[in-house]
Design goal:
- The structure is a single chain.
- This protein is an alpha/beta fold and about 500 residues long.
- It folds into two domains: about 375 residues, Methylmalonyl-CoA mutase (TIM Barrel), CATH 3.20.20.240; about 45 residues, no CATH class.
- It contains 20 helices and ten strands.
- The strands form two sheets. Strands 1-10-9-8-7 form a five-stranded parallel sheet.
- Strand 2, helix 1 and strand 3 form a beta-alpha-beta unit.
- Helix 18 runs antiparallel to helix 19.
């Protein structure tokens, strides 16, 4: 049975069936396990281990102080250093994080938003210090500030100032790091906060529309910025719905870029996306069940045509992944890739009545939500009014009620429950790590030219206050040995700090 006429072929507009004609027959998805904990040395060792086990791309998790623009010795950082990711305070930390890794060969993804420009500047500075041409660097920074206000919360500056930062990064990367994906527009965290599949598509693509609008307003052409946009989605438990979700999102983005923005470059219309299995679906109860959940979710992402994939570890509801759990998560991808036979087929479920009907349903629901957002004046205004936040809160509440009423079964949580001992072998961050990181930070400050740092930070503040692109100033500051927290503090002084309103 051939697919319906409105679906098209893989590798052809509107890319419902995938962005490449042969999909995984030609090249497998990138296996990019998300990792980072403790200090730069410990995380570097984990990256080398995962690469030795067959991982094909790096994906860096940062601790909360790094995400929020605080150095490890700031009062706000106390108790959080190295806990949910790696602590990166300055260029020396980034040099250690990337030690012995071939930056011109490996693709690196960094899940970082409010301080994305600074972390990218660290990365480029490391490459320059090694004599590596930045134009050879490949990777992605998340740099998706709008979803922080919607769902995640690691924002620093107000939305409109954040949009200025995003477009400055777009323009600078086009000239300096042209192979870099300048943004990973994220539905992952929207889904983690409790959205439905249709809301995940709608709010993610509405964010994407806002970023393209902002880039055009900043003087960039749609086909200048379009090929460097990427997306990041969640893979949840409803197998058929998730496959359809990816297909619907890809088709919608192709139409948005062509019809709404007039894109001519086919790369602008191709939605390239990374997928991570659903962290919020993992349970502390009977953690071995998470291996099954992750396998189902990973298969949905692959059948939906993802370009790269992270599979969560079985123990992530309890702690950061242990080495053995991270290896098993990677092996899950490898078994699917090399043993299941799925990679031999392009969109194997395409044409199925169920899959096509689900794809159409999700597209229609998501388009209706985008129309509502357009009616408000766009996503920035919708966020300021609290629209997506309320929609997600309502969906999350409805889901929780269904679980509590046992209308939705979560195996091991509200049904098939059993007594079990606490699992062993969980990863724990060393108690003395924070003090050691602070000590290294103090030594870094003591060993630099303070006047040179002050001069570069002053120039950064002047650029942020005017219309000059801030990225060259951030790079100059970090190469002069300014810390991440110092850069963020200068920008806080110019842009202010965002305080979320309470939406009921």
């Amino acid at each position: 049975m051939s697919p319906p006429d409105n679906v098209g072929a893989a590798g052809a507009y509107p890319y419902t069936r995938g962005i490449h004609p042969t999909m995984y027959q030609g090249r497998l998805w990138t296996m990019r396990q998300y990792a980072g904990f403790g200090d730069a040395k410990a995380s570097n060792e984990r990256y080398k281990y995962l690469l030795a086990q067959g991982q094909t791309g790096l994906s860096v998790a940062f601790d909360l102080p790094t995400q929020m623009g605080y150095d490890s010795d700031h009062a706000m950082s106390m108790g959080e250093v190295g806990k949910v990711g790696v602590a990166i305070d300055h260029l020396g930390d980034m040099q250690q994080l990337l030690a012995d890794l071939p930056l011109d060969e490996v693709s690196t993804s960094m899940t970082i938003n409010s301080t994305a420009g600074t972390l990218l500047a660290f990365y480029v500075a490391v490459a320059r210090s090694r004599g590596t041409d930045p134009s050879l660097l490949r990777g992605t920074i998340q740099n998706d500030l709008l979803k922080e206000y919607i769902a995640r919360g690691t924002y620093i500056y107000p939305p409109r100032a954040s949009m200025r930062m995003v477009t400055d990064i777009f323009a600078w990367c086009r000239q300096t790091v042209p192979r870099w994906n300048t943004i990973s527009i994220s539905g992952y965290h929207i889904r983690e906060a409790g959205s439905t599949a249709a809301q995940e598509i709608a709010f993610t693509l509405a964010d994407g529309i806002a970023y393209v609008d902002a880039a055009i307003a900043a003087g960039l052409g749609v086909d200048e910025v379009g090929p460097q946009l990427s997306f990041f989605f969640n893979a949840h438990n409803d197998f058929v719905e998730e496959i359809a979700k990816f297909r619907a999102a890809r088709r919608m983005w192709a139409h948005i870029m062509k019809d709404r923005f007039g894109a001519k470059d086919k790369r602008s219309m191709m939605m390239r996306f990374h997928t991570q299995t659903g962290g919020s679906t993992l349970t502390a109860q009977q953690p071995d069940n998470n291996v099954v959940r992750v396998t189902i979710q990973a298969m949905a992402a692959i059948l939906g045509g993802t370009q790269s994939l992270h599979t969560n570890s079985r123990d992530e509801a309890l702690a950061l992944p242990s080495e053995s759990s991270a290896r098993l998560a990677l092996r899950t991808q490898q078994v699917i890739a090399y043993e299941s036979g799925l990679a031999r087929h392009v969109d194997p479920f395409g044409g199925s009545h169920v899959i096509e009907a689900e794809t159409d349903r999700l597209e229609a629901e998501a388009l209706a939500l985008i129309a509502e957002i357009d009616g408000m004046g766009g996503m920035v205004t919708a966020i300021e009014r609290g629209f997506p936040q309320r929609e997600i809160q309502n969906s999350a509440y409805a889901h929780q009620l269904a679980v509590e009423r046992k209308q939705s079964v979560v195996v091991g949580v509200n049904d098939f429950v059993m007594e079990e001992a606490a699992p062993e072998g969980l990863l724990r961050i060393a108690a003395g790590l924070e003090a050691e990181q602070v000590s290294r930070l103090e030594a870094w400050r003591a060993g630099r030219d303070a006047s040179a740092v002050a001069g570069q930070l002053e120039a950064l503040g002047a650029a942020a206050s005017g219309t000059e692109n801030v990225m060259p100033r951030i790079l100059a500051a970090v190469e002069a040995k300014a810390t991440l927290g110092e850069v963020a503090e200068v920008l806080r002084g110019v842009y202010g700090k965002y305080r979320e309103s309470v939406f009921v």
